[in-house]
Amino acid sequence: MMEALKERVKSTIWKLKQPGVKRTLLLANIGGVAYTWLTSIVVTVLTLFVTLPTLYEDNPAALRFQRVLFTFIIVSMMVNYILSIFKNSYFDAKMTNANTAESASKGWAYCTPCQQYIPPRCHHCIVCEQCVLKRDSHCFFTGQCVGHRNQRYFVVFLFYAAVAAFYAVLGLESFISLHVGSFFSSNIVYYIYPIATFMWMAGSLPGFVYLSLTIFYMCITIVGGCTFLFCMHFYHALNGQTSHEATTGVTKYRHTSLKNLHDVFGSFWILNFLLPMPFAQPSDGITWSQCKELKGY
Ligand SMILES: [Zn+2]
Ligand SMILES: [Zn+2]
């Protein structure tokens, strides 16, 4: 992992020196990753050391339980986040036994930027500047392409990010309501952000309440965004399609729902939501069985 990190830092510095679109995309990548880390740290510290101790001041056992629960959620989120970055799905023809003539005869596509033949479902990413096996999409928040090897971690990361943000929203609402009243009452006016900003500037709303309100809204957008992306990715995984295949109507790699899930998560797919599992996926990302070959699976 250290070697991969060093290599990544080296290529990032090199790309930052290049002018134009490359630099813009890279800055978006760096900004997305920095935003994810910063938000995760702020929400974790705020929840563990401010909102939970305030809400469970009189109940140490409940406080301990809530802290353990939130720590499990946030650790699961970050472990899957890190794995989805480092378990990349890059394809390098030199690392396989496939030779040019053989690849061309199999009908593999040719990637001009990488000057190599690429297997089915593999596509070039202009941000990563790599061919990516079973490429789904590029995620600026992980700074990485979602593909064959890391989709299993990415989907679980989205799940826990939505859960963590929802947990933080509930805690922050209770915390803010101690100072300005509940969101679900006539005091909702204090939650209207422009009004809250004005009140904070006028000195009638404490700074820490205003900051909590800002993070409260950030978490609401995270809940919405991550829930949407999780449902989309899970739906595509269930259907045996990538986002690109779903929009272009490619259905030839679809099998039964269970087999489709094994393709993404490996065997015992549901266990990945408890801990990242070492179970291998049926495909190596290069060779794909098509539906007609798997009748009776
Ligand atoms: Zn390529
Ligand atoms: Zn990419």
Measure the end-to-end span: 37 Å
List of distinct ligands in this structure: zinc ion
Low-confidence stretches: 293-297
Main sheet: strands, sense, barrel? 3 strands, antiparallel
| Count of individual beta strands | 7
* Helix percentage range: 55-70%
* Principal-axis shape: elongated
- Range of strand content: 5-15%
Order of helix and strand elements from N to C terminus: HHHEHEEEEEEHHHHH
Number of helices: 9
Name the average pLDDT: 86
Write down the domain tally. 1
* Category by helix and strand content: mainly alpha
Descriptive overview:
- The protein has one domain (2-290).
- 57% of the residues lie in helices and 7% in strands.
- The protein has helices at 2-16, 21-55, 60-86, 100-105, 151-180, 193-201, 207-239, 243-248, 257-265, and strands at residues 90-91, 109-111, 116-118, 123-125, 130-132, 137-139, 144-146.
- It has a 3-stranded antiparallel beta sheet, with no helix packed on it. The chain has a two-stranded antiparallel sheet with strand order 2-3. The protein has a two-stranded antiparallel ribbon with strand order 6-7.
- The radius of gyration is 23 Å and the shape is elongated.
- Residues 293-297 have low confidence and may be disordered.
- One zinc ion binds at residues 111, 113-114, 124, 131.
